Amino acid sequence: MVDTAIGLADREGLAAVTMRAVSRALGVVPMTLYTYVPGKAEMLDLMLDAVYIRTPRADTTGARWRTRLTAVADENRALFSAHPWAAEISTLRPPLGPGLMAKYEHELSALDGLGLSDVEMDDCLTYLLSFVQANAREAHQAAAVATAGDDAQWWARVGPLLAQVLDERRYPLASRVGTAAGEAHGSAHDPDHAYRFGLARVLDGLASLIERAEPGSPGRQLSADGTG
Amino acid sequence: MVDTAIGLADREGLAAVTMRAVSRALGVVPMTLYTYVPGKAEMLDLMLDAVYIRTPRADTTGARWRTRLTAVADENRALFSAHPWAAEISTLRPPLGPGLMAKYEHELSALDGLGLSDVEMDDCLTYLLSFVQANAREAHQAAAVATAGDDAQWWARVGPLLAQVLDERRYPLASRVGTAAGEAHGSAHDPDHAYRFGLARVLDGLASLIERAEPGSPGRQLSADGTG
DNA sequence: GATGTATGTTGTACATCGTACAGAGTTGTC
DNA sequence: GACAACTCTGTACGATGTACAACATACATC
Question: What is the pLDDT of residue A184?
Fold first, then answer.
């Protein structure tokens, strides 16, 4: 049942994952699903944990920390690329299943031995994953928009309206920078570029914390937060 | 109509914003709304642009760039704090209204004169705003979860299950770090802490780009992306 | 003043959703 | 063979977004 739902979500998007659709794919009446699951939310949790379990995880022991964290980010990006719906499901009060635990353990190991405190390790990982998820969400939305309305067609429709609002006198910076960014990326938003740019920023930001700590030390357990 | 919808969303959440609820608050039948708006999506766009317009924006001309960008981040955080639903609305193909334009112009000005190219300015702003929005979404979800299920009660229910899955032998890092983080924040996730920590990382990450450029220069227009 | 047209409003109706509830099979154990 | 536990089914309810046709009112034109 979870596999069926995942397949459905991969092919037709999260909105297509209805109890009726899943049950139909299983050749069963909708209410049957409620024998195995209390409600739809729990089914989504199970879907998420299932894809977590199957994520391939590269062993980067011994590599530089930037390489290791890049691998973690890329793994998550690949996951969201294969299952875009995963980025849309609520992550707070996460599905504490075996998949999430294995994922958490593996990703923490990329931050181990860098001289960070336990809390800092969690902070850094949360920060990194939050960036990847936000980017994945943007990418997914950008793709959905692109397929929906031909993009060029949308720009043609919105262009005049934009010119009207985008008074160059009142908004000189916005018009100049907006135009430059749009032309550089060939569209309103380029998630691939945003990922490369953002990941570089994330790593640089973490560097100011990590490279202040001594590698190999047991960690500065007393650091309350990493704000300096 | 937009004001009514905003009030409804502020008080009862985005899920409570139904065409029927808005129309009822206006003392009118649901279909009347469709005279002014083609569909619900457009109404949400108008709501977003309306709160953008009303956002107070501090003039930080002359201050250090970290101060200016912190102000931008805090303004957005305040907006999402006052209108949590704003963080949940699709932002791709954004509502190109006067509110968004004014916001964009103002926020770009905080990045002006730092020697960044136009594209880099957009990249940096996008990166910063994406962080704030992701954090706001987490905070909103955390709050919703807290009110829903007493938190302590939830931990009591999930604790045993967690201990079972969280085999310390198999997942030593996860159990140690997870426990430390949970105890430090008093719960599973602390969005306030994540904001302070994350903003510091964001600024450090941007510093590696900004402080490489010469302040006051017209910008390195040829830099394709900021990945170094 | 009468009339045609735009504009705002209403009621009814439909398809879709999650799921509550009561009952009908099927299976395994004593 | 009888009972209990599970699994499965059909029907039904209240929500949602919105299509469609009919109605009211206001204003421009003759």
Answer: 81
- Overall average pLDDT of the A100-120 stretch: 92
| pLDDT reading at B228 higher than 50 | no
Please give the pLDDT value at position A123. 95
Positions of strand C less than 7 angstroms from a protein CB: 8-12, 16-22
Distance from the A27 Cα atom to the nearest Cα atom in chain B, whole angstroms = 32
Average pLDDT, chain B: 84
Residue A171: what pLDDT? 87
Nearest to A176 among B118, B126, B200 (CB): B118
A-interface mutation test, from B140, B177, B209, most A Cβ less than 10 A away: B177
CA distance B84 to B80: 5
DSSP A112: T
**pLDDT tens-digit readout, A36-95:** 888 898 899 999 999 999 999 999 998 999 999 999 999 999 999 999 999 998 765 666
